[in-house]
Amino acid sequence: NVKGDRLWESLMEMAKIGATKKGGCCRLALTDLDKEGRDLFSSWCNDAGCTIKVDKMGNIFARRAGTRDDLPPVMTGSHLDTQPTGGKYDGVFGVLAGLEVLRTLNDFDVKTEHPVEVAVWTNEEGSRFAPAMVASGVFAGVFDLEYGLSRADLDGKTMGEELKRIGYAGTEEVGGREIKAFFEAHIEQGPILEHEEKTIGVVMGAQGQRWYEITITGQEAHAGPTPMARRKDALVAASKIITEVNRIGMDNQPFACATVGLIQSSPNSRNTIPGEVFFTVDFRHPKDEILSKMDAELRAFAEKTAKDGGYEMKFEEIWYSPPVEFDTDCVNAVRKGSEIAGYSHMDIISGAGHDACYISRVAPTGMIFVPCENGISHNEEEEATPEDLAAGCNVLLHAIVERANI
Amino acid sequence: NVKGDRLWESLMEMAKIGATKKGGCCRLALTDLDKEGRDLFSSWCNDAGCTIKVDKMGNIFARRAGTRDDLPPVMTGSHLDTQPTGGKYDGVFGVLAGLEVLRTLNDFDVKTEHPVEVAVWTNEEGSRFAPAMVASGVFAGVFDLEYGLSRADLDGKTMGEELKRIGYAGTEEVGGREIKAFFEAHIEQGPILEHEEKTIGVVMGAQGQRWYEITITGQEAHAGPTPMARRKDALVAASKIITEVNRIGMDNQPFACATVGLIQSSPNSRNTIPGEVFFTVDFRHPKDEILSKMDAELRAFAEKTAKDGGYEMKFEEIWYSPPVEFDTDCVNAVRKGSEIAGYSHMDIISGAGHDACYISRVAPTGMIFVPCENGISHNEEEEATPEDLAAGCNVLLHAIVERANI
Ligand SMILES: NC(=O)NCCC(=O)O
Ligand SMILES: NC(=O)NCCC(=O)O
User: CDD domains, alphabetically (chains A, B) (predicted)?
Assistant: First the structure.
């Protein structure tokens, strides 16, 4: 079994980098803090005797040799970047659980036929740079390298520039190699396991996502002498669309999620009618048909709102990530691991996107969920228990060892 | 008569300071650019033989002596600060029209019994520091000095600090002295004069205003795995209130205006449900009863929205500026000036607040409006014709000379 204490200590050590006052973490992708986190991980992997490689998207691979080192690796991992008001576990758990598996194999001097690699995927969150999972997406051939490196943050800085700046623009080609199996351990980030009182979620797949960027242009004018009837208030139009996004989420239950997470209004002055508003939409559903229906509803409403109010509108779908089904063998390995270790478990669909979603296109893939307190994630108060995290890590160990010796 | 060309040239010279690509001006209160504008104005006043004093709120007074210099001054003026996407005339016209009056009196060597002063009021716009007209408000005893100096921008910098930094924290006491009469020339900032084809607006008074700051606190959570029914999305609540603000404006016609000009959402990340949204509300109406009714409607809706959705809400009315009626003698002087000079004119109520609104509490006050193109202000495309501006300046000259010799 893994050492739960060691895993916990590593998590708490990593959480110091970008620690927030409210007990969370702000370690945005490709910032100085992200570099610090990557450096710490790399030094731990060095200590564990791994060889480390970095690819052109900044993905890090720490490798423990197999007895037949020419065989394709069994891979695990997740991400070290966080949301602006992120927690200590989202992503980090999957990376450090992978490290803990390597440390445990070392402890017991276990040899595996296949090499085992722990991956850190760049910019999984999609918060500083959209879309999410962009570097695992390049690895899986969903995006090309140029697209990945040219993703820009709101200040116009690109991933390529920022990778160079922090010294993680590696030389390895991105992807294009065989992987025996990929497993990602993660906190659930939702309320189901806690509610069902299960320790392990055997992840069957993930729901689909559509991300949009919408810019409404009206006309700036004085908030005092401009009669209501003459106005083109971009924020009023945006507010109607935001309310509709919420309606679409509500009316496509069960399962639909609909969120406007980001909004920027210009010139953002109390007594000037907003002339331009930029905002994003995040739609999710496990069924592709419903996701398409939500898409159609949003387009129709946004177009009508723009037309009726005489606004200009730029409406762009910037990301579509279809629903994912994981590999049966990998899913079974996770379920079997839970049973051998004696943990309560249930099948579950992931509400979040994960690097595993993209890797599943190029390798047999599975995921392991553990509960998080009140189902809260993307929040500084995100919590998980050392016991549940150790349990998830043990299931990961079982799954990896099984796959690495076939 | 005044020299319209000279007035226009000075306006264009001042407009270079903070000039924007779209032909407007961004010269926010107490920035380096505001200092530059103030310096330019002061040098022009020096050249015109004025003595210059600056008070503790940074208000500038350029004085042309009277033949009986112990008599209280006739004063005119406005402001040099602009909106983030402001125009070349809002405020600046009133200041430079005052200067043009002094230059004209010099040209013809006209002596006035009362001294004449041109004032530049600090932070009239209320954009960088809320509320608007804060320094003329301190001058009029509506706010105390400490309140004025402690107004802070969104970065927490106070007016007191910024006045010191740009060297305009003067030593004169703020207000407390007699003023014979105050006149302010300004572009209308609305569509009425243009629509009625009149050159001069004889301003009878100004509508009332109520400004609010509202903070809605919900709960940050992941946009993917968090079921709609469990969410407390602060931006959804804010959007409902913004839509209602617009409804209140629409349903209290004629005359009501209602605007949300400023919004900040946190953490502002595409795939995190917004945890906290801060926004402002600007309500206006010429009738106090209707303004109170609008206030009651907003409070009721906001409270219900917060309660029903389980949000925390901070709801603060940060400014109340009641409807203003200007002094009959001053209004008549403006009307008479228009008639003598032969300009078409009409009575009008100001939709915007102006420094004159506060000065009217401590001195007989009147205002002169000239048309602006398409009624557009607080917009980089704000335009006014040299002819109309010269006309307004001539009316100002008449009104000042009349009042300065009684
Ligand atoms: N796990 C996670 O938070 N992923 C971010 C991408 C998403 O929003 O689903
Ligand atoms: N004149 C002007 O733009 N004043 C700003 C204060 C207001 O919003 O009324």
Answer: M20_bAS
| CB within 8 Å: B260 and A272 | no
For B173-208, the DSSP string reads -SS-S--SEEEEEEE--SSHHHHHT-SEEEEEEE-E
Per-residue pLDDT of chain A (406 residues; tens, 9 = 90+): 999 999 999 999 999 999 999 999 999 999 999 999 999 999 999 999 999 999 999 999 999 999 999 999 999 999 999 999 999 999 999 999 999 999 999 999 999 999 999 999 999 999 999 999 999 999 999 999 999 999 999 999 999 999 999 999 999 999 999 999 999 999 999 999 999 999 999 999 999 999 999 999 999 999 999 999 999 999 999 999 999 999 999 999 999 999 999 999 999 999 999 999 999 999 999 999 999 999 999 999 999 999 999 999 999 999 999 999 999 999 999 999 999 999 999 999 999 999 999 999 999 999 999 999 999 999 999 999 999 999 999 999 999 999 999 7
Q: Name the A residues in 216-275 with CB < 8 Å from any B CB.
A: 219-230, 233, 235-236, 238-240, 242-243, 246, 249-250, 253, 256-275
Rounded Cα gap, residues A236 and A280, in angstroms: 16
Give the Cα-Cα-Cα angle A127, A91, A5 (nearest 5 degrees).
Answer: 150
- Across the interface, whether the CB atoms of B223 and A259 are under 8 A apart is answered yes
Look up the pTM and report it. 0.96
Q: Are A32 and A81 in contact (CB under 8 A)?
A: no
Cα–Cα distance, B201 to B327 (Å, whole number)? 15
Of the candidates A239, A271, A378, the beta carbon closest to that of B261 is on A271
CA distance A309 to chain B (A): 13
Ligand 1 center from residue A249 Cα (angstroms): 18
* Cβ separation B379–A125 shorter than 8 A: no
User: Does any CB of chain B come closer than 8 Å to the CB of residue A189?
Assistant: yes
Phi/psi zone of residue A268: left (φ > 0), alpha (ψ -120 to 50 degrees), beta? left
Atom of ligand 1 nearest to the CA of A209: 9
A291: tokens are 């996701």
Tell me how far apart the alpha carbons of residues B102 and B295 are, in angstroms, rounded to a whole number: 43
Q: How many other CB atoms sit within 10 Å of the CB of residue A365?
A: 27
The C-alpha atoms of residue A216 and residue A223 are separated, in whole angstroms, by 18
**Cβ pair B36, B95 in contact under 8 A:** no
Q: Check: CB of residue B230 under 8 Å from CB of residue A375.
A: yes
Q: Is A17 on the interface with B (CB under 8 A)?
A: no
In chain A, the residue whose alpha carbon lies closest to the alpha carbon of B260 is A270
Assess whether the C-beta atom of A253 lies below 6 angstroms from ligand 2. Answer: no
How far apart (Å, rounded) are the C-alpha atoms in residues B109 and A55? 80
A20-to-A122, A377, B140, B302, B324 alpha-carbon distances in Å: 21, 15, 45, 31, 49
Q: How far is the CA of B91 from the centre of ligand 2 (A)?
A: 9
- Residue environment code for B72-98, b if the CB has 16+ CB neighbours within 10 A, otherwise e: ebbbbbbbbbbbbbbbbbbbbbbbbbb
- DSSP secondary structure, B68-91, as one string: TTTSPPEEEEE-----TTB-SSTT
C-alpha torsion sign, points A291, A296, A297, A303: positive
Residue type, B106: N
